[in-house]
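Blinded run. Sample ID left blank on purpose so nobody reads anything into the name before looking at the predicted structure. Input follows.
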Amino acid sequence: QVRVVESGGGLVQSGGSLRLSCTTSGNILRINDMGWYRQAPGKQRELVAAITSGGITNYADSVKGRFTISRDNTKNTVYLRMNSLKPEDTAVYYCNAEIIAGTSGYYWGQGTQVTVSS
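Blinded prediction complete.
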């Protein structure tokens, strides 16, 4: 059974930093694209950053220059380094991964709360 688990969220002051981690486990053959999404109260879930298995990255305009996505393919883990955080970054952050396994598909984690105080 494939599991996707996020960690690293919390409360931080405006201008601060956090690093999110997303670990995957199970009978995984390969992981293709991995990404971070976020959902603020009353808003739709949006893509924050994504990374291919080869390391090509893509960012939402609102986080370019402040957030960095990276992955460790040996650990099937993806990270999101968030610097210069703003109150508008407050949201639940979700990890998504395209996983090739016994049951292949796009898997979501349960989310981790990030709160940025002004």
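Unblinding after everyone has recorded impressions. The mean pLDDT is 97.
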